[in-house]
Amino acid sequence: MAFYPWEKRAAVPQDSLPEVSRPLNIIRPVPKLSPYFSLLFCTLFLSGCLPKGDATDPRVILISIDGLRADIFLDPTANGFTENDLPSLRRMASEGAHIKEVTTVFPSHTFPAHTSMVTGRLPFEHGISHNHLFDPARNFEPWYWWADSLKVPTVFHLAQEKGLITASTPWPVSVSGPFDYNIPEIEPMSGQTLSTLDLVRRHDRPSKLIEYFAFFGGLSSSAESTHGFQRDLNLHHIFKTIFRKTLPHLTGYHIIQTDDVQHKHGRHHESVKEAFVFADSLIGSVMAMISDLNQWPATTLIVTGDHGHVDHHTDIRLNALFEQEGLLTIQDGGITEWDAVAHPAGGSAFIRLKNPTDATVREKVVSIFEDVPWGTLLAAKKVPPALNGYGETDFVLLAEAGYNFPGELVQPFVFQHSGGGHGGDPRNPQLKTTLFAVGRGIEKGTVVDSSHTTQTAALIANLLDLPLDSQQPAPPVLEQSFLTASKRE
Ligand SMILES: [Zn+2]
After folding, report:
1. pLDDT (tens digit, 9 = 90+) per residue, 50-96?
2. Which residues are bridge partners to 262 per DSSP?
3. Separation CA 480–CA 483 (nearest Å)
4. d(CA 162, ligand 1 centre) in Å
5. CA 110 to centroid of ligand 1, rounded, Å
6. Has residue 3 got a pLDDT over 50?
7. Which one of 33, 137, 185, 418 is separated from 462 by 20 to 30 angstroms, measured CA to CA?
8. Maximum distance among all alpha carbons in the chain?
9. In angstroms, what is the span from residue 253 Cα to ligand 1's centroid?
10. pLDDT tens digit string along 372-389?
11. What is the whole-number distance in angstroms between the Cα of residue 219 and the centre of ligand 1?
């Protein structure tokens, strides 16, 4: 093992991972995918060919806990938690800053929100207006995986242009993105024979980076390796290893299981608490690592979410309804012809007409939604500023409480199905997220009532002195001395 110094350095310190209530077996026999590439990567690294940050450089770690709800901290008891649960996030609040409520964007979807977090812009401005591309023929299944859909630079672009080292471990909309170290967020489409790991291997940077982790521990091509708690734990191992070894100046790191369990079980369930306790333990592990590396003087840790969650009891399959009304045709799981089609987003949907000037179709769409108890239709021109996000559409449909708009095309269009979701009006308190920040530049003990997801980009830009083009100011969590020093520079 003398050839592989990462093996030792990447080990998770035993004292840094608090106990979790579910057995998590990350260490197990590993399939040897391509030892040649692992050796090549290690050789490149050891020879200094791969970039590494200087220990004294300012750096930011941005961690998104998907579906991190503000109300868990505003009213722990009502949400099944105690004041002592989630100790790592509470420690961040006491040693740093806490923004109680962060309003997300519309639609309150994962990819639009993450992209606003790193651009300071609304979805229609940055180009990621939905999780899924507008692609009726494939029933909107393709995701915005690719960074070339971005219309404006992210803080990762700006950091890289400044010569800083960036990492995604992983981050939404990151395939071919501006990352020196990139474990991209990507999954296969239904029917695709490639596994998630195959796709990551195709798009990682440096090429074959993932081979190192496949070779040394915890990763295989099986779904087990890339789903659930095991996925988050594997990604945690990857994040920590890359951070320890290369000290990036800006890292985006996405924890996902907290969202999956809320979709499945709704807001209040033992599994939801378990997932947040688990995510909190990962944050504790990151904080322990920063201490271990003596990196707090140079490092700012920001932990936030992309949206909250609301419960529903009934799905409304809008395009199945439109088929019933003769507005579109469904064939082989896709929408082949349409006069009007819905781009569903859980708590909302965007209804587009093939010909926006076709008054007959427009009137028919309006009449369908006139008296339904499960949705409110707004003509695009009457959408209030808070719901300005998707961009070009003819109508915005908001789900009423208890209802959800999924992508399924099959009848019945009204389907009893309970769970959690998001995508709706971001002014709904249940959809608000929160933010914790600690470390370099953060005023200890700061409590801020509210901010907006777009302001997080300005916070990162201030911390790393990046020329972000955004109208949104950073939330007031920075140390006065830091602000004064920044101005002097
Ligand atoms: Zn999300």
Report:
1. 788 888 999 999 999 999 999 999 999 999 999 899 999 999 999 99
2. none
3. 5
4. 29
5. 4
6. no
7. 185
8. 74
9. 13
10. 999 999 999 999 999 999
11. 24
* C-alpha of residue 41 to centroid of ligand 1, in Å: 32
Q: Output the CA 67–ligand 1 centroid distance in Å.
A: 5
| 109 CA to centre of ligand 1 in angstroms | 6
Assign 214 to helix, strand or coil.
Answer: helix
**Mean pLDDT in residue range 215-232:** 74
Whether the pLDDT of residue 466 is over 60: the answer is yes
Ligand 1 centroid, distance to 74 Cα (angstroms): 20
Work out the average pLDDT over 237-255.
95
Dihedral of alpha carbons 38, 41, 44, 47, sign: negative
Distance from residue 114's CA to the centre of ligand 1 (Å): 8
> What is the Å distance from ligand 1's center to 62 Cα?
15
Specify the fold of 29-134+143-309+429-488: Alkaline Phosphatase, subunit A (3.40.720)
Q: How would residue 213 be classed by pLDDT, with cut points 50, 70 and 90?
A: confident
Task: Give the model's confidence band at 481: pLDDT under 50 very low, under 70 low, under 90 confident, else very high.
Answer: confident
Task: Tokens for 172, please give them.
Answer: 């939404």
CA atoms of 90 and 101, how far apart (whole Å): 15
CA 199 to chain centre: 18
Distance (Å) from CA 145 to ligand 1 centroid? 14
Structure confidence at residue 218 (pLDDT): 57
Q: How confident is the model at residue 187 (pLDDT cuts 50, 70, 90)?
A: confident
- Ranges of beta strands (E only) in 53-130 are 59-65, 97-103
Nearest to 105 by CA among 435, 486, 455, 466: 455
Q: Which CATH code is given to the segment(s) 312-421?
A: 3.30.1360
How many angstroms does the Cα of residue 257 sit away from the middle of ligand 1?
10
